[in-house]
Amino acid sequence: MRKLIFVISILFIYGCSNVSNPQYDANKALAEKWVKTFEDGNIDLWKEVVSEDLLDVAPMYGMGQVDYATSLQVAEFYINNYTNVKFNDPVWLPGIDTATMSPDGSVRAYGVWTGESKSTGRTFRIPSYHNFGFKDGKIVTTGEYFDATGMVNAVGPVDRNVVVATLNVKKGSYKRVQRMMDSEEGLKTTRNYDGCMHIEGFFNEESGTYFIIEHWESYDKYQVYLNWRLNDDPSKLAERLAPLLVGGANGLTPYTNNVGYKFY
Questions:
Q1: Confidence class of residue 13 from pLDDT cuts 50, 70 and 90?
Q2: What is the mean pLDDT of residues 138-161?
Q3: Mind listing the pLDDT tens digit for each residue in 97-114?
Q4: How far is CA 247 from CA 168, 207, 263, in A?
Q5: Where are the alpha helices (DSSP H) in the chain?
């Protein structure tokens, strides 16, 4: 019984100290304004409360920690592509300094995002967790934890324009090809080209084939990209790849105008 009373006392003291940081209420208001950015579709609210020194753990698969400029692009993506967005049943909690276990003015939030894709009209509902750190009256660190990639796929078009490109790689040349694919002028450039919605790449050792799977807004936009890549790309990536492929330039085969797409 004495042990139980002691534990309850400790929890009571900790619970009371949890709201004692004088900056918590003001910082929580900044975090709530960050949320309103997406609910109101107003990027100016985001810019108002976020520091240019921001470090953000982005929710998209593989992005990791990003800077202010990249985080702004992600925020603009959501605002431009989704409507009727709401952060439902939020639970706001004070953060703590993990070394001292005392409130440090940071803010945490749990909730459920809902909304609708502007292009397809399909809706999403996804639980999420966020944390916010502050400096000089601005949000300087954020962490966004939810299945953003799954959300984008879930509200995507019922029918997609999928391009499958294959590279017939010469024996012993895979590592050089992979370095080109991973470079800034490689598949990252393809992904950022107008109209490209999603891209994946992998190598099959048995056949010596590198597969690139791309989702585009339209096949017309893919053709514009392909023409640029083959003729106007300043990096000359296609030309540099050709010697590493069986048959040279003919070792690249794009399959377009595919039909009957289904997402299961």
A1: very low
A2: 87
A3: 888 888 889 999 999 999
A4: 8, 15, 34
A5: 2-17, 24-40, 43-49, 68-81, 148-154, 174-182, 187-192, 219-227, 237-241
CATH topology of domain 161-255: Alpha-Beta Plaits (3.30.70)
For 56, the token pair is 């953000």
Arch. (CATH architecture) of 2-154 = Roll (3.10)
- Write the single-letter amino acid at 30: L
Task: With beta carbons less than 8 A apart as the criterion, state whether 207 and 215 touch.
Answer: no
List the end-to-end C-alpha distance of the chain, in Å, as a whole number: 56
Q: How far is 25 from 254, CA to CA, in rounded Å?
A: 56
pLDDT in tens, 178-218: 999 999 999 999 999 998 988 999 999 999 999 999 989 88
- C-alpha 188/C-alpha 239 separation (Å) is 18
**What's the chain's length in residues?**
264
Question: Would you say residue 32 has pLDDT above 80?
Answer: yes
d(CA 121, CA 156): 9
Who's near 134: CB < 8 A, 6+ residues apart? 23, 27, 30, 105, 106, 107, 140
DSSP calls for 7-39: HHHHHHHHHHHTT--TTHHHHHHHHHHHHHHHH
Indicate the domain borders of the chain.
2-154, 161-255
In degrees, rounded to 5, the angle at the alpha carbon of residue 99 between the alpha carbons of residues 97 and 100 is 70
Pair of tokens at residue 183: 């470079």
Q: How far apart are CA 132 and CA 124, in angstroms?
A: 24
Model pLDDT, residue 12: 46
